[in-house]
Amino acid sequence: MLLVRNIRLPLSCKAPDAEAAAQALRILHIPPTKAAHCGVAKLSVDARHGKPVLVYTIAVTLNDEGEESALAGASPCVCFTRPPQFDFPVGGGTLVHRPVVVGLGPAGLFAALLLARSGYRPLVLERGPDLTRRIEAVQHFETTGELDPNANIQFGEGGAGTFSDGKLTTRVGDPLCAFVTQAFLAHGAPADIAWRQKPHVGTDLLRGVIRSIREEIQSLGGEVLFDTALTGLHSRGGVLTGIETTAGSFPCEQLILAVGHSARDTFAMLHRAALALECKPFSVGFRAEHLQTEIEKSLYHAAAGHPSLPRGEYQLSQHVGGGRCVYTFCMCPGGTVCAAASEEGGVVTNGMSLHARDGRNANAAVVVSVDGRDFDNEPAKAVAFQRQLEQAAFRAGGGNYLAPAETVGSFLQGQGRLELDRVQPTYPRGVTPYDLGSLLPPELAAALREGLTAFGRKMAAYRAPDAVLTGLETRTSSPVRLLRDGETLQCTELQGLYPCGEGAGYAGGIMTAAVDGVRCAAALMRAYAPPKL
Q: What's residue 172's pLDDT?
């Protein structure tokens, strides 16, 4: 396959996809009759100079694929590439029992998918319910304030990523990203995730994709037990021999642990089992909501609203005093702020958007980094810090999972006011005016004020005093990491245990978590053949 990059077209182009393909063939100096396929591989927008242009990469496959490599030098923007081929070797070790995967978020889902496709018939344990019951539980909580600690935006089939924007963006250049994308496409994800610069599925479509992947796992002999949490590990001589769960005990020699970043009871169990945990950097802050139209004016200027342009999204960062960084995270165009608590008496915010991204507001986490120095390098203190912030936010909201909120202009001056104007908060449980800075350690509140002020210099929308801040955002990533060997990917202190994904501290986001799940399953497969059950 040939990739022809950096084809730039104005927004005034009437049929930009077709024109980009035609330009690619002209650059290659070949007639259309020689191309078996000519289509969009990537589309992005360059709005840096105030006049947005569409930037295409076109993929071309020739009728005679043997001629492709010779055309790679036709222009500096042309390269020759081969689609990745995935080969997962199988080892000769003997498994008496089928492998177990704990957690059905992106990491566990894709670990189980690879194992199932390779004949291992995994047993998958998920502490929460299936998607249908999980969606009902989330809607019930949003309506009544009655929280189910095992069925919420953090726990249940699909993990925390199910209630998100469904972003598949990653800076990881791992070939396994293509494996994940192919699986998403095979199970009904939008075709454009194969070529968008910033691909997203949307929480509405992602649910069907997740359910379809789980059904493939089951059709290949995998078994999924919902409402089943891991509660303990059995070992002998540093080797895993079995597990305890809320559904009883199971023999287990190989366990992929993909519990997600909010499984605090599991972290405590691992600590009691004397497994090596360490503090991992994470971030805390709040959700910032702006009008989506104001975001697009900031990004696209006079071209804002043009039908060829995607919904505007952004990523901002600013290094501040004390060696910290304030940055935006999980930006959701046209989305809503979520009530993401998983423990009683705590308020947690997050964001999500549907595939259409057609909501009135944009939202993003605005957070500041924290790390081991803030917790004496003790993992238990890191978890306690998150919990204390969430409980303080619950009290500030006045109970019943209302969230504290204030406008940006008020926060910058520490006034604790919520003077609503154009931006109306979308947090479903409702909001209460409160001084958000008083809920955070003074150093972190000062850092967030400095960061927001800097964002206003970079982006006009952040100078709007009526933007709404809703708090607190505490679950940006896992606060702990369970140490694993770099080659075998097994826990350094317990053979047969594979710490995996966000919860174990090895991923951040849907794509990287899914890739880590594939990577851990492949490591298991390199050592063992499928069990003869």
A: 63
